[in-house]
Amino acid sequence: MAKKTATAKSKAKAKPALRLPKLSSKPWGQDGKALDGVRILDFTHVQSGPTCTQLLAWFGADVIKVERPGGGDITRGQLRDVPGADSLYFTMLNHNKRSITLDSKSKQGMKVLERLVKTCDVLVENFAPGALDRMGLTWEQIHAWNPRMVVASVKGFGPGPYEECKVYENVAQCAGGAASTTGFRDGPPLVTGAQIGDSGTGLHLALGIVCALFQRNRTGRGQRVLAAMQDGVLNLCRVKLRDQQRLAHGPLTEYSQHGENIPFGVAVPRAGNDSGGGQPGWILKCKGWETDPDAYIYFITQAPAWDKICDLIGKPEWKTDPDYAKPAARLPRLRHIFDTIEAWTMTKTKFEVMALCNPLDIPVGPILSMKEIAEEQSLRESGTVVEVDHPTRGKYLSVGNPIKLSDSITEVKRSPLLGEHTDEILSDVLGFTAEEIAEIKASGATGEAQKMAAE
Ligand code: CAO
Fold it and tell me: Considering the entire predicted model, what is its pTM?
């Protein structure tokens, strides 16, 4: 795809991915990682929390994932595609971490946890509300053991009537306002494939943690960090809350509903593929759409590019026609305009449309399938799509670190097997003696005793 979409202009503009001043005398990436020295007690599971701790691990934090003996993070076995191997669900969310198995509800397990709390800088968890307290790990207890510790949580809802609820991705998308504003006007609310509830909230939490660590440098104190999934989704939907308030002052003129003379109700409607900003856009068919479900392109009729659009699609008369020349005049005619542009895009592949529009500064975006993304060479080269090798499942593709730091280069390392690092964490990180480790294991706290009995 890279070859097909690279235009003469984009080639001429090509620059290294990131150009920032270099302050250190060492070569790029040789100063270690941004979060070197930060140790995380990772009590996360499923998607939201693991997204957060994976990011921190990519930036160099030592992330110790504490998992329940037996099965560990439930996603290890969910949506399994290779019998007996950790699922892609798990492996793609838990890179660069170490795993220790620990029954946190046992006496010996709590002894290990206490030492982990005293050794780590941050505890990250996304258990159901109250679960951490029920384990005995209240904020007061943690703070007494380690006043510098940052305790970071993902919950479904913040304080309020729903704070006790368990929440998964789509629940958050619905409760955060995304679903009511996604989809077509004449259809039901829709959830989106982007995991804005889980991965989106994990991102928010990661920022909160880094800020809390930064503040700790000044105060010496840890603090609690909460990222509620409803809040995270709403934050990503803020333009829709903007539109809700604009409704009080008249119709939302950039919504195609306006051009079609359909009155607005009391709440922001679903806007189909209308663009969320001030530049009208829509998804248009391209050559091959009859058989290829992704032969489409997003086309934006950005005002400064209007004359070039008119010339390109063979409608030069629209440049001076008072019904089309100015953005405000075009608003009630958007459907007709996009139908006309589509008659042109349907004669070309999405990549041909890209290649013709890019040099003219007409913003367009091909609808890329996951297959095309997986095969996209430039994403491989930038480290955004990486191939990882795993001892039980073999090679697989993953999304690498989407955030690039010029002096903290991310190496994506495979996810840990369940309990793979139990011994080294007990001895090297926590300093337990051989006798103590034997006692902890014999108690069943790490699951080894049961495993041996079963074998
Ligand atoms: N040793 C012993 N017990 C452990 C343990 C360990 N190492 N790890 C977890 N447990 C226990 C917990 O303490 C909890 O016990 P109690 O219910 O007795 O307090 C129990 O396991 C179950 O934890 P949970 O309620 O968090 O898990 P669940 O599968 O029932 O719910 C989820 C999952 C995601 C709905 C819930 O954790 C949640 O709402 N989390 C917050 C929101 C969130 O992150 N959602 C995103 C999930 S990704 O789509």
Answer: 0.92
